[in-house]
Structures are given as structure tokens and as C-alpha cells.
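[09:14] KT: can someone run the structure on this one? pasting the chain below
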Amino acid sequence: MKKWCLMVAAMLCLMIPTVGSAQGLPDFLQAVQSGLSEGLSAGSAAMEKDLALSMTLSDSRVEEGRDVTLTIRAENPRPAETGVSLTLNLPERLAAQTGDELTWNAVLPAAQVDETGAFVPSVTTFTRVLTLMPGGESAQGTVTAEMNVGSRFYRESLPIALCVADISTRASVSGAQNGRATVGETLTYTVEIANAGMAEKNVPVELILPADAALEGELPEGFAQVQRQIRGEVGVPAAGREPSVVTLTFPMTIREDALAEDEDALRLLSGVLRVDGQRIALPRVQLCGPKISAKLLPQTDNLKAGEETALRVVLVNAGMAEADVRVSCMLPEGISLVTAPKPQQDTEAKESGDNAEAEEEAPKAVAPEQDDGGADAEAVLADGAEQLVDEPEIRQENGGIVFDLHMDAAGEEAYTRVVTLRVRADEPQENIKERLLGTTLAWQIDAGETQLGEAACVRVYRPMVLGLTKDEWMGIFWAGLLLVVTVSCLFAAFNSDNKREKYCE
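[09:31] RB: done, C-alpha cells below
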């Protein structure tokens, strides 16, 4: 509208000189005409000046959870207000704050005239807060602003980096051999959190320790423990040329009584690990313990007085952990341990075939002979499982027999050892033809609680002939002999008295 008014005024000014000259107007009207023409020319030139559009970002990187501010700067060098239309184009996953429009109309104020008479452009700024939506990977994008006045367009673009954290987690356990652990051992959970993305991130971590496990040492900084649950947050920097890695360690000790009530001496250590809301699988660790059973098997259950026999102590480890075992055997009164010295071998015997006999005398893990009490031993001894073992040191303590030995862990089959004890039956008391004696067995695993085995019974008897023992037959013999001697003496004395009477006559 203003433009049309100026054009009408100009036409009137052009017509005034003609009319004025015809009527004889003063010369000053020509001066007015000239001034107006020059003003109109200058105004038209000022209105034709270009607008200016520029943008700035508070940060060339935008990360999840951290906003950036976009500032749009529009300059108007014209002496009149100018209406414009603005449009903001954002890359995918980048959005303006709620309430901020991406397309809007605005009026740019007119330029101002300074002291020298020059026009000073007006500056109008528009701000938008940009937020990166979650999801996706790191990428490069472009923010574009467009401004148009009628058919004229102004455009400005800025690059922006969409930075996202790329978190991956790996969990491992150390201290376990072949995925197995024993009570009292210390295991260490190691959690490696890697960031291959362009943005740092505070990652929440939650670890629930397995039952019967206690944390060893101090927690990482920023973590706290409530019972078995450990929680905290760790900051993982953005990746450089290589992914950044943060390592967390959680050492723990397995309690000594972890398998106290477990008959199988085997259980799975199950913990729970969550990193950044995702459940991470922990390595499987089997908690193993020894499973020791012992049985006392006499070579025979009928033993003559003064006769020697073998008592076999059969120990079986069906568990997947080795153990040191102390075995004690209480012999009843009437049975004594035979301590025979080890045979000495000279050089010639070693070079001869006597080696075979010496090897046969060495203790072996071999199945006992079949008898009334040997059926159970066959069940625990594997067929053909003969192997040479070190003979334990057998000693007598507190009226019993004690020895220590090491039991290896079970493999495909149970590990079995047999220790042979040579014993001798003592003579029973007088007037006792036989006695039933019981031998007891007890053992301790790694200095733990004492366990008792079944008693083995042995019948000790005196040899008898026709229901009488040797001593009884000897007593009858001497009594008979004494009787014969007595009768002979009486007979002789009687005969001597008769001879004396005949002599006197």
C-alpha cells in the first residue's frame, strides 16, 4: 500500500511543472519536484536490498539426554517492515522441544538510520531447542533453515553430529577350574562394559551374588550393597579410534558350609547380572565337593584264636572335588594289629625275578574276595580298576588305628582306594569258646565333622574237636594220665603189701 502511495505522489509531482509553468508558479516548485524525485529513487533502491539469514548451534554434537540450542538470525536492511515465512528442516530422530514450531511467519522490523544517514539493518533472532530421540546409531545430519519473501528464497544449512552410545557387555569369572569351584575358594566376576558409540553414557549395573557367597574386599566407587544385591552406576566415555572399556571386578568367597546339607555335593552357582537394563548371562560355575563313603570289610568273619587276617578299608569318592581324609579304626579287645616290617630287597633280588613278588606285596586298589561281607565292596570298586597307590602311614592313637590319605576327585567313575590292615585274633578268656567282636570305622573330610561307618563283626573262636577245645582235650589228657598214674601207684602199693605179708610168714 505504501508503495502505491509513493507512486501516486510521484505522478502528481511530475504533473506540477507543466501546470506551474502554464500559470507562472515560482521556481521553488521545481526544486520540490527535484527533491521528491531523488527521494523516490533512493527509497526504491533501499527496498531492493537483500535480507540476510544465518544460523548457529550451541554444540555441533547432540547426544541423548542433552539438548542443543539452535539460533536463527534474520537481518532486514530495508527501511520498511518486511514479512517473511520461515521453515526449519531437521534430520530424522532430531526433534524440537514441545511447543516449538518448525514453520512460522514473522515480521522483520525496519532498518534504522544512524547519525550519518546510513541504514542499519535490524536483527531478529529465533531460537529452537533440539532433542535427540532415543534409538538408532550415531550419524551425521544437517539442520536447514529456509526464509522466503514472496518469490525470493534464503537458505542456510549447518552440519550436526547425532551421537549415540553403543554399549556392549561381556562377563567372565576367574578362579574356577574347568567351570568348577570348591568351598572356601575365591571367585571373581569381571564385567567389561564397552562403548563403541560417539556419546558417553552413565550405565546402571546390578549384580545379585549367588547364595552362600560373600563379597570379598571393597566395592567399586559408586556402588552399594544390600544383602546379596549390588547396585551402582558407571560412566563409560565415548569411543575414540577404539571402543572405550570400563572394567568392574567383584571378588567373592564361597562359604565353608555351602554344601553342608547337599547330599549330592554338587550345585550350580547362579547369580544375576543386569547392565543398562539388559540381563547378561554369567558363566556357569559348578560348586563341587567331595562325596566320601567308607566301609570296613574283613577278609573273613570267622577267625580262629591266634590266626591272622586282613581288614580292608574301602574308601570311595563319588564327588567332583578332591579331599584329604583321616580314617580311624577302633579294634575291639581280642583283635590286635600286626605290625610286620617291610621286606628288604638287595641288589641281586632287584635284578632277578624277585621284583615280581615285591610288586605283588605292594598295596593295590583291588576288589576284595567274595564273602559274606564283600558284596557291597564290589558295588563301589570298579572292575579292573587296579592301580598302585602310596601306602599310608598307619599309626596307633588313643587305642585306635589312624591313617591319612588323599582322595582324588571322581572322573567318569568314582575314585576308590583300599587300605589293608593285618590283624590277629587273641586267645579268648578261659571258659569262653567264642566271642563276637565288632570293629568300628570313622573318618573326617578336610578336618570336618566325624562320620561313622557300619561296624564289621568278626567271630573269634577256639578250635574244637568233638565239641571240645584243644585246652579242654589237653586237660582231659592230663587228667586221664594222672588217673592212670594214680591207679598204677595204688596197684603197685597193693601188690607190695601182699609180698611183705608172704615174706613175714
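[09:33] KT: thanks! The CA atoms of residues 318 and 414 lie 5 Å apart.
[09:34] RB: yep, looked fine to me
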